[in-house]
Amino acid sequence: MFGFIGNRADLGARVLSLQADVLRVRVPPGAPMGWGIGFYQAGEVLLRRRPIDEREVIDPTPVIEGVRTDVLIGHVRRPTVGGLRTENTHPFRYRQWLFAQTGTIGGFSMLRERLLESQPEFLRRNVRGDTDSELFFYLFLSFLHDAGHLAEQVVSPEHIRTALRASISLVDRLSAEEGFPKNAGDLLVTNGEYLVGVHRGTERTAYRVLKGRQDVEELLGDDGMQQARIPNVDTTHFSIVVSGLEVVPDGWRNVAQQAFVTMTRADDPTFESI
Description:
The protein is of the alpha+beta class. It has 7 helices and 15 strands. Helices cover 28% and strands 30% of the residues.
């Protein structure tokens, strides 16, 4: 799972292609996977999803070649709950929100109806697939609604984190009632203005910041810089986060366990305990 946010839609695809070695996923023999990306372009929220991809190596970077976006979430899926169908393929979308998640809710088969019943009808009827992740997304939206923030055009990071905390707490409590330990897994959610992640998975999550002239020169190279003639290059800023890593690559930094990472277009990521 990966995401980025920055202040240059014209460079978003270049930022992703630079990370191709980090983002490629090798598929186990006989275990096809799916993938999806969600992004914002020209005021629209767009999805590209492929529920089954039988290639030996999945490289998501060519999918957005030529796309102009400054916020994106991507996900490569090995199904644990729900089959390889478009409706089960992350990221999920509701209005301006995009959401993706890794991990599995303990005891989900016993909790599905309770999670559905805890949501207002206008949200519940938007559930299309079978996954625990989609239900968690709508649970998060339900907490935003209860706090009066769901209808707001721009929801602050503080309110996003509060709704995520409430969702995590409720799901962990319900899983514990069925005899399961606290859930593990990472997630990313964005409203197009902020990108908020949660790291409590078993593999590493890391982030990288690209900003200013030196990093843009790395993106484009000397020839690209001359051809692009990018204005205001010194203010360019991108934050990228990737979960599910076995090794943290050079130039990247770990996200601490049990932590939020909050990213904006112009500032370095900030961190907060769950």
